[in-house]
Specification:
By secondary structure, the protein is of the alpha/beta class. It is built from five helices and seven strands.
Length: 138
């Protein structure tokens, strides 16, 4: 797995205070973090930049976290996506997982829960990434 300072995270959240708080916390922990306040901004960021993980609210101004998952899958199919929502239910959790999200975090959550989810997702993604240095037959 890459070091934290090499890990790029996109935070998609229409609540500016929440988005900025999460961005600052993750930056303080050593991650490279960009934010997006809408589906259109997230789409631009996902098509122009490489992200190792996407953290998105389910309800964003001009779209949904499910749409963020679809776009992220087109641009970076192996990047884990964590969806979050204040309107958590068993149905929402199931829909999030069925959409292709690696995790669902009900809001409010604490820093420990957020970090455990991020670290687990990044660890699993690293295990699923083939080592390009290993060549068959060599």
């Amino acid at each position: 797995m890459a070091t934290k300072d090499a890990v790029r995270i996109l935070v998609v959240e229409d609540d500016a205070i929440f988005r900025d708080t999460v961005r600052e916390i993750l930056k303080d922990l050593g991650y490279k973090v960009r934010g997006a306040r809408s589906l259109s901004k997230a789409t631009k960021r996902l098509t122009r930049h490489h992200f190792d993980l996407v953290l998105s609210d389910l309800e964003i101004g001009d779209g949904t976290g499910f749409e963020v998952v679809q776009i992220a899958r087109q641009t970076r199919p192996d990047a884990p996506i964590i969806l979050m929502s204040a309107n958590a239910s068993d149905e929402t959790t199931q829909a999030a997982m069925e959409s292709g999200a690696a995790r669902f975090l009900p809001k409010p959550f604490n820093l420990k829960e957020l970090m455990a989810s991020i670290e687990d997702c990044l660890s699993r993604a690293a295990q699923d990434t083939p080592n390009e240095d290993i060549k068959p037959g060599k």
